[in-house]
Design a protein that fits this description.
Length: 87
């Protein structure tokens, strides 16, 4: 696996484990606030993973696009993602 994706993969695997725990908590009818707090924690992990992926994209694909003349297209992709991210 490429080194650049290790951080995102670790975050995603952690989120997956927490999701399984949230499902069990919900099935066990645990306290709603506890479930909600865990959902927020997973959301945070997913945001961090997404930022890690975008950072790597900028450092590799966008940087390479600068050299081959296609940087505008790559920047538009990043801007579209960031627009979705801040909604």
């Amino acid at each position: 696996m490429k080194e650049k994706h290790k951080e995102a993969l670790t975050l995603l695997k952690t989120a997956r484990g927490q999701m399984d725990a949230i499902i069990r908590m919900t099935e066990d009818e645990r306290y709603c606030v506890d479930i909600s707090n865990q959902i927020l924690a997973v959301s945070s992990l997913l945001r961090k993973a997404n930022l890690s992926v975008l950072k790597n994209h900028i450092e590799t694909c966008v940087k390479d696009a600068y050299h081959d003349g296609t940087v505008e297209e790559k920047l538009e992709e990043v801007i579209r993602i960031l627009n979705q991210y801040i909604k």
